[in-house]
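FW: tagging you since you asked about this chain on Friday. Here's the raw sequence from the shared folder, copied in full. Didn't touch anything.
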Amino acid sequence: MPALTLLGGCAQKAVPTDGGKAAVPATRTVSRFVAEAPVIDGRSTEWTDSLQYDANSHLQYQVLNDARTVYVRIKASDAPTQAKLALLGMVVWLDSTGRNQQQFGVRYPMPTDLKTLKAPAERPMGAMGPTAAERQADHLERLRTVITNAQEMELLNYKGNKEPVLTDTQSQLGIKAAMTVDSRNNLIYELAVPLRFIYKRVPALATGQAAVVGVWMAGQKPKLPPGSQQSDMSVVGPQ
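HL: got it, structure written out here
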């Protein structure tokens, strides 16, 4: 079946999105062609379970494509990785070279202002700290709050525009993004990007013509108050 060859990279630290391009080693992944496009709703019911694991970022991922669009799914199972991805945000860069040329980017989710999140309930002085179950419940509540509010994304380098273009996550342009927490408390991320945003002439994949797409995911650094020291905390997704 026709497919894309995906060249993607993972970074250990947050990658700047407004300056130089990160020198991150690429991993070659062959996308699977699908006749029917998956629904980008974060539920991943149309996807198979054949995800690949990236040890650096602790994320599982899968790539699909049809004749016009590339689809990316990410699954984060552990709480620290989930929190970094959902709260700090992420940028996905795509290009037609496989060399991280940052031709087109999608910032989703966007960074969350932690002040807007509900703080855990205060405990009486001398009381024991929260149990593991209580910490997990607080964590999941935060995730769901972030997901509910994550209804917008930014398009980077859209039509050569140097300023980010804000749009909704189910854009009429065909770019779609979604997140959810599944029944096993995994954080699921889905993204669809039409190939026309990186190819002036889209390869005829349906007739067997090959194409290369570079997919690079970069975590964002937290926004700290003025005068604070910058943290290395970041989340980076695999290709």
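FW: Residues 5-119+127-219 form one domain.
HL: agreed, and The chain has a mean pLDDT of 78.
FW: great, closing this out.
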